[in-house]
User: What shape does this take?
Amino acid sequence: MSIPSPSAAIGVPDFRNQGIWLRLLLAGNGLLLLVTLARNRELARLPAEILENAALAEPALLLVLVGLFPFSRWLRRQRPALASAWVVAWAAAAFAMIDGLLAAAFDGAPGWRAPLAGGLGAALLLAWFSLRAQAQAPALAEARLAALNARIRPHFLFNSLNAILGVLRDDPRRAESALEELADLFRVLLRDNRELVPLSEEIALARKYLAIEKLRLGERLQVCWEMADCPPEILAPPLLLQPLLENAVYHGIEPAAAPGEIRVRLHAGRGSVSIEIDNPLPSQTLQRPGNQMALDNLRERLMLFYDLEARLESGIEDGRYRVRVELPRREAR
Assistant: This one.
């Protein structure tokens, strides 16, 4: 799964996405209601006509979505025109099948209007999704630029270089290792991050980031990892953990003189992946303003990758600041 490039051709939507299903069902039912209202000649018969049309449209819509679900990945690899033609053809076939079943059940004859309505409806909905995606393209480009600018706070680079210079004379090997980790970190930050990556890569990047911060903060920074049941082949958005950990360091560890512990918990369920990061809360006089930029940025990127399937929550629990991210489970194939 990837974020579409604004300059790329707009293809069919991802039919595995729950948000897409919800929008298609709502839009399909809205279209059904408009057509029924337009064709109605007698107001008293309107409820009966809505029920008659719904008896055909509802099972046909579900059949279309269920049939497209396993082929969604294949469709998104095809040229947009070809993929759209397949979707329209399948929608027409699904409406024809349901119409045929209803005709057989009620001793009627199947007609040509049902497949025509299914095909035209699918074409209209695909056109709407295409226009919506094109309208969002400038916002996607701006969001990617904002993500690039907000990934690393400038103070982190300066402080890291100062920390490396501080140990360069006494421990040159440690300084060399820190420089390599810093280079690896920025190499990932500056690459094109539109594709999901293995969670193991995200964890490795997060550990490198924390090693650099550990060099600077010393024993003030303690980290506890809990991830026994999280397979490495699970996929996640790039730069998922590092901004959250940077937020935890910047707001939870740096302002306090006493040591503090950041806790990272990763849990993979059958259909979802849960990530929790919490950090201590310094006293009111030491707290720093504005910890929402990284969270808002990540929330927007999750929306781009997963639509409505991902969730990010944050707040104070048990005297600590906790961020919880829920992702749909995706695995590398």
Observations:
- Confidence is low (pLDDT under 50) at residues 4-9.
- Residues 151-328 form a domain with the Heat Shock Protein 90 fold (CATH 3.30.565.10).
